[in-house]
Amino acid sequence: QDHVCSLPKVPFRGAPCSDAAGSQVPYSTIMKQVNSSLSGLLWDEVQKAPFYEYKDSVGQFHQVWFDDPHSISLKAAYVKSRGLRGIGMWNGNSLDYSREAVAEQQTQAMWQALTP
Question: GH18 domain location, by residue (predicted)?
Fold first, then answer.
């Protein structure tokens, strides 16, 4: 209910936690799962990022954080306003490059969001 989720501490090269504590989910899966999730789309104003929560088939709760065109565009605008040299996003290979119309639209929107 309070949307607080903590990652187990899995040290990696001196960092207190790593991606070993969670797993990467393809953007296409996120886009299909978010609408049927327990929480629906949620927004964190501090991180300027969307997330959602769901329960898996064995009853375990999960929280999925991701970037979408809105959050990427806010970050790109911040970079531009500060005169920084550039921006990138984690793993563009996780976007859906199938020929489905919705997938093409979502993927195009993500890439366009990188240019404020």
Answer: 1-116
* Total domains in the fold of the chain: 1
CA distance to 11, 56, 90, per residue, from 8 (Å): 9, 18, 22
**Whether the Cβ atoms of residue 87 and residue 17 lie closer than 8 Å to each other:** no
Residues in the chain, total? 116
In a domain, 82, yes or no: yes
pTM exceeding 0.70: yes
Distance CA 116, CA 85 (A): 13
Residue 73 placed within a domain: yes
Residue 71: its pLDDT value, please? 93
CA–CA separation, 34 and 45 (whole Å): 18
Where do the H-state alpha helices sit in the chain? 27-33, 69-81, 101-113
Task: Domain of residue 60: give its range.
Answer: 19-114
Q: Is residue 62 in some structural domain?
A: yes
| Reported confidence tier of residue 92, pLDDT bands at 50, 70, 90 | confident
Residue 2 falls within a domain, yes or no? no
